[in-house]
Amino acid sequence: MCLSITALSACSDNDDEIVYKPNGKVADPKELSAGTSTVFMSGIRAYDTPATWVKGDLSTRFNLGDQLYDDPRTTDQDDPTKGGLGPLYAGYSCGSCHKNAGRTYPTLFSEGGSGKYGFSSMLVYITRQNGGFFRQYGRVLHDQSIVGVEPEGKLSVTYDEKEYSFHDGEKYSLITPHYSISEWYADDIDPKDLIIDVRIPLRHVGMGQIMALDTDELKRLAAQSNYPEYGISGRLATIQERNRTMIGVGGNKAHHADLTVELGFSSDLGVTSDRFPLEVAEGQSQMVGFSHYGIQISTKDMEDVDLYLSSLGVPARRNVNNETVKKGEENFYKAKCHLCHTPTLHTRQDAPVLLNGTRLPWLSSQTIHPYSDFLLHDMGRELDSGYRSGAAQTYEWRSTPLWGIGLQETVNGHTHFLHDGRARNLLEAIMWHGGEGSVSRELFSRMSKEDRNALMIFVNSL
């Protein structure tokens, strides 16, 4: 039997568990973002702390995965734990883009585009206007390279800023990015035939729980997520992955059904594996002499990274009994934010399996509060990237999970949000909502300044 302090308490199959805070007190159920994987951290390590069930051999493997995630890769082909970088890449480690398992400050703002010194903090998708790829290039622009190889190109960004006013007269502004690519290594590409879609890193909060989501519950959500009076109708992202038809839950456009560890090592770092044995730029004219290095990271090592990500704790909610936070929660519902940012979901009963067969039963049968329905929603022309991913249209985006969002500034030193970081704070992120998000944007904009602030304080408490 599983003893429960409330409906939000988390239970395992074998133990009667109540979640205790570090001070020995029983946790308030409202604080439990991810059941027994909730961690009571609010400092710089809030995203990068293991769940309390990570012990013994799991702890050893967690630390090994953490090291592989953070340590810079090198060009040393004889070191399988650190070598294999490049020849083309976007970042020199997972942690270079995901500092402290969060979102590294975007070089879009610090350097106006592609980073220098072997570093880039975003992914740049490129395609033709007709959806096809360019000769000599793939779907991702690799803007960094090792000595002897040229980067595929360099991204530049400029921003137009426009001022707006709320209904009560308070002013705010939004910035619109304009991207261009220069220094093409091979064929110059006509800008008129080029679509550029830029993505800053996602926060790696609750990745294990996301992979363990009860997909039957998501199917029910999709069937019920039709609110014609508000113009809202979310849909599941059905994708093909590992030769199977699966439900996408990961990524900005729900275009992944796993943590993409192998894809990240291959496409982002240029490191080969059993699943992706070819160098990322295989076939390019400049790759003569840089091919056929063999497997540069083992499946066992990648599973330790998979385990590290899956075992990270989710920060507890803060200030749950604060009156302003309570008022903000009321306003969150009044603005209909909850219709897409679903507060409560559950993980499935069967234990999630990592990429090399390890099972994590601690992620099973949990009540979690990601504040997302993980469905695709039309966000309107304002956020139309022009690029399709998986099942998502150019204007569709997965509802972003909000758990831990209020700690991003503490963890990473910035408050840039949305897929390309154009929102410089939560207020701007809300005001960029178009399409199905228009109703929330309008209801939010008609609130008093006090009520708007309370809503944002609530979101920052998650």
What would you note in describing this structure?
The protein has 462 residues and is of the alpha+beta class. The protein has one domain. It has twelve helices and 16 strands. It has helices at residues 56-70, 94-97, 107-110, 207-211, 215-224, 261-268, 299-311, 323-334, 408-412, 426-431, 438-445, 449-460; strands spanning 38-39, 88-89, 123-128, 144-145, 154-165, 171-182, 194-199, 226-227, 232-233, 237-241, 244-248, 314-315, 345-346, 367-368, 376-378, 396-398. A two-stranded parallel sheet has the order 1-12. It has a two-stranded antiparallel sheet with strand order 2-4. It has a two-stranded antiparallel sheet with strand order 3-7. A hairpin with a 4-residue loop joins β8 (226-227) and β9 (232-233). It is globular and about 65 Å long. The two termini are 30 Å apart.
Summarize the structure.
The chain is α+β, with helices and mostly antiparallel strands.
